[in-house]
Amino acid sequence: MRIIRAHEQIYKNYSTSPPGSCLLPYLCAMQNSSSVLKVGILGGGQLGRMLLQVAANYPVETWIMENDTECPSAHLCHHFVKGDIKNYSEVYNFGKGLDALTIEIENVNVEALEQLEQEGIKVFPKPSVLKIIRDKIQQKEYYRLHQIPTSNFVITQNLEELKQQQEFLPAVHKLAIGGYDGRGVKMIATKAELETGFDQPAVLEKMISIQKEIAVLVAINEKKETALYPPVEMLFDPVLNLLNYQLCPAELTTPILYKVEAVALAVAKNFNSPGLFAVEMFLDKTGNVFVNETAPRVHNSGHHTIEAHYSSQFDMLWRIILGYPLGNPAIILPSIMVNIIGANNYSGDVIYEGMNEVLEIENAYLHLYGKKQTRPGRKMGHITIISKEKHDLLHKANKVKRTLITKS
Amino acid sequence: MRIIRAHEQIYKNYSTSPPGSCLLPYLCAMQNSSSVLKVGILGGGQLGRMLLQVAANYPVETWIMENDTECPSAHLCHHFVKGDIKNYSEVYNFGKGLDALTIEIENVNVEALEQLEQEGIKVFPKPSVLKIIRDKIQQKEYYRLHQIPTSNFVITQNLEELKQQQEFLPAVHKLAIGGYDGRGVKMIATKAELETGFDQPAVLEKMISIQKEIAVLVAINEKKETALYPPVEMLFDPVLNLLNYQLCPAELTTPILYKVEAVALAVAKNFNSPGLFAVEMFLDKTGNVFVNETAPRVHNSGHHTIEAHYSSQFDMLWRIILGYPLGNPAIILPSIMVNIIGANNYSGDVIYEGMNEVLEIENAYLHLYGKKQTRPGRKMGHITIISKEKHDLLHKANKVKRTLITKS
After folding, report:
1. Is residue B395 assigned to a domain?
2. Nearest one of A277, A209, A213 to A243, comparing CA atoms
3. ipTM score of the complex?
């Protein structure tokens, strides 16, 4: 098996299968000649948009399914299908004439994807992965099963069960299903706060004293070749639980870097599925690594790869879907990424102020998501800055944060 | 005036206008706040396609006009208008509700653009530039007027006039209007070959003993700030007159580099128009520089800028159209670009062979143009390779050329 580690000089070990042999008929067909593949994406948000920007480089005909006809992806695909990605028959009908499917959000009808997979349609990642990921209880049990370090936890089916966990505090209570971007998550530090927990199936996770929050993207193709992007380091807005800055590469000691990479690889490889996996981890002050969550798709923590890495996460996923060799995940230059988030005091048609000053910054790259309406906390776009110097990155990111304002 | 020279460490001289002042109401409006600009592109080929891939980063709503509903740009714009870009009323009606227009091919109705410009619609480049460029006689006279070095020439209105130019041989005969990609150009070395010339208005250019063919992209915004991309060096297929490889940066001595830059700047700045200008030049063996042709738009000679430069030619043109500061034209890494051209023996639905082997090459970037049909000599896509080492670039480009085959 070939593993590409991005933080080192790239090295390539050849596949252990004999030269010339190819066990996968699909890949063999792709190697011999390429015609256009029909690929559908469930979800039409910014991740779909950025996937479609890159799709135009490859022999692929694109379909998007999304309920909002004015979503960020609507005008960049060959075929837009208005529909509910959570509805069995709509997803099934969307997928059944296509060669392959992928997602840009986990909250999709997995049963329809399972049926489509049985009928021979490739799904990236496999529906079996989505079943684990969409339920935080199953996700935690997956980590435990594969001896992947994660915070201690207990499962609570309702508020009554939660109230018995006083000795487990301080802890974080997470809804098993439906949480997203800070929703469905509650900090519970005291006995009194137990009352504010969820009265539905949930996971209660032991609070960790977080030193750093990092993420690693892992790419796996159908030949089980693997590419590891270097870890990124994140800073969150404590109020909205939305990302402020993201620095790449994360500053880690070599032993911790290797530990982080080994953990991320273990998370991704045990799914036994091709795809792209964003593994979010906490480091505590004593150098322990804990997996927080995994997203089996292109992810906010990989936006910087568009400019700062040889092969972006979007390029990488197309290579996986189309059966091509993996791209090069290595860094071209260090980077910082700033999310452009809807200001607290505005809702309505968006106007951006300070764009000129931001685009005056050397090697700052704007990505707007084409959302017409701003709302408090809404992800409207992002800016990536690349530079050799960390202090330069931080200085410029702060300038972006101070300068660019969303209004309405 | 600010000039960014890409081959040096980037330096920035501020505008000569007093700080805070702004003479252009349009730019001032952009500086204060950005809402979505409506921009139309005349032509829907690969250059339009790559413009649209980048447009999704910016606050812009896109229109394409093109006769072929299956053209490379058709599915990547907000609004596709089927129409003839050479027809006055179709171009006029297309443009009149928009904020700005640009082109991806020169062969458009310039009179309609002039009318639209008078009505306040921004056109990049100005129609006055297109009038000069579209007629090779006017283009040559423009170079002469501005003392820009170009090969000696005589104007021939018909075959009779051409036949009187025996003493001017060997020479190249170029149709004044309608030549493109090697069509409308004839080598005339002998008296007998004079008979094969054009019986229409044309330019007869003295043959130059070409040592190198190079091109320089120049970007100019409405504030007259200027960015210079480093020169590229080209190798052409002698049969089809289509580009084989293109290397960046061109290998030039410092005195020739400065001469080339000065000439390219003079060509672009004398147009008195914002826009992107691809200036194609010949070098002879004694170090003389001759301007061959100029394209006032994104151009084949700038494809490599997508991966190999901080700001690509497509990014740069959007910055110009939207009134933002210019991007950084400097090189991230040296590059080589290989056009993927329809093989001589095939016409019909395209199939690509060898894609897997090509995408196995480290830091090779595929760009297919989504053309369903291959024809001999048709530009189907391109591949850019980036690397520190010239020999590595050449080796990989040769591998691409040997490996990737278009069939039908």
Report:
1. yes
2. A213
3. 0.89
